[in-house]
Amino acid sequence: MQAAEILKQHLLKTATLTDEQFDYIFSHFRPISFKKGQVIISPGDKVDAEYFVISGCLKSFYMNDDLKMFILQFAMPTWWASDYNALFYQVKATITVDCVTDAEVLCLSSDDREKLCNEIHQFERFFRWRTNKGYVAAHKRLLSFMDNDAKGRYEDLLRLYPELYNMVPKQLIAAYLGVSRETLSRLNYKRHT
């Protein structure tokens, strides 16, 4: 499926758009190809865009002073990624966004997003829906860390995103779950025995 069709189907889940409106919206997106390991956003960067994933997988993460990685998000096809704090508040990036695999994305600048939201009510509606959905997902993940042990978080991940386990290296899955690689191996072993 072509990038335009993937984006169109994604938008049409919540927005009613004419073909002309979609074509106009799509003209504001810029396709970019990234290689596995390529960094899209680094701490300290000025962030002026967000990325809609067509294929591949991105990750957003924070590295603390002890060089411990905390993965905030994996972005698979039809997901969005950026440093949203930096994007919306025009401050320097504090997280890294890079490529877990080769990836094809559509880049939408902050200025173009605001322009399109002002011009096309349904596009603004889509972004409101997406923001709400993202907030709820972040809330659920935070509650999972408070309520679940490592086994519960692991089972939630497999239930919600089964394709992620085969797409992402296991040390990154462990970082996302907040466990060691060894703990993840034990959880996976117990699941299969």
TrEMBL record:
Residues 13-71 form the Cyclic nucleotide-binding domain. Pfam families: cNMP_binding. InterPro entries: cNMP-bd_dom, cNMP-bd_dom_sf, RmlC-like_jellyroll. CDD domains: CAP_ED (cd00038). This is Crp/Fnr family transcriptional regulator. It comes from Taibaiella lutea.
